[in-house]
Amino acid sequence: THPIIFDTDPGVDDAQAIAIALRHPAIELLGMTTTFGNVDVATATHNALLLAELAGREVPVAQGAAAPLVKPRHPAPAHIHGANGLGDIALPAVQGRADPRSAARFIIDTINARPGEVTLVAVGPLGNLATALQLDPTIIDKVKQVVVMGGSVREGGNVTPVAEANIFNDPHAAARVLTAGWPLTLVGLDVTHRCVLAPGHMARIAAGQDKLGEVLAGSYGFYRDFYQEMLGIDGCCPHDSCALAWLIRPELFTTARGHLTVATQGEAEGQTIFAPENRGYIEPRWSRTPLADVCLGVDGKAVVEWITETL
Ligand code: BDR
Ligand code: CA
């Protein structure tokens, strides 16, 4: 099994991924850490606690970044995930409370308690991981691996023509996390845009669940409308679940190894730039950062089937 920390900003597609993390027998969910992103951080924490409770599980939730490290925070547009992050459906009250530690402290403590074992899966803006790195750089050598849903190297962006939302929302944090030199895989729009969770899949998911299923199906309807308007597809891209699909079923993906760079300013702000390894560039700075793996291809149908089956 994979012991993981799930760093998240729930979020409709985050909620689907959290349900997978709670339910998949090969995943041991050690805790969730929350960040601003799709919603403000207090709402993200509320939603993470709620989803665990609906699944009947006690999972620590540690609250983290309320804003980007450097740039000012733009409020999340409510038409994508709803003002409450879960498609504005009515939600039951939360019983539990957040862990008293900050997200960064929770990450550091958890990795140090089990050196070499813990996988960090990050599916929101990357401030919590960046802060953890800054407070305790020794986690670079102690984490098992880091899987980031974010970025785009060939596909183009979803916030600007070149920037994906999680990277764009805190490019300075992303720059630190993607160039830290820990074993990292980027699961970006290059693959998540090839995966479409259609209404038929969601009907199967909802049929197999109880309270949690109502929230997943209810919020899905809202998210589907957004995809219909923006991309003209019937269904939605389960971005964040793809990071877990990579962890559990890597054979469904193809990856390339190379150097990652994040543009932090100007027109290209939030762009992830990928320089495949062993390619000489006349301008050497593109190959100075440590190596990372980037997902470039995917069997999208198989990933969506895996998500549906798991749920
Ligand atoms: C990412 O941005 C968020 O809106 C989603 O939850 C996902 O993590 C996709 O670009
Ligand atoms: Ca997310």
TrEMBL record:
Pfam families: IU_nuc_hydro. It comes from Halomonas nitroreducens. This is Nucleoside hydrolase. GO terms for biological process: purine nucleoside catabolic process. One of its GO terms (molecular function) is purine nucleosidase activity. The keyword Nucleus does not apply. GO terms for cellular component: cytosol. SUPFAM superfamilies: Nucleoside hydrolase. It comes from the Bacteria. Keywords: Glycosidase, Hydrolase. Residues 4-304 form the Inosine/uridine-preferring nucleoside hydrolase domain. Signal peptide: none annotated. InterPro entries: Inosine/uridine_hydrolase_dom (IPR001910), IUNH (IPR023186), Ribo_hydro-like (IPR036452).
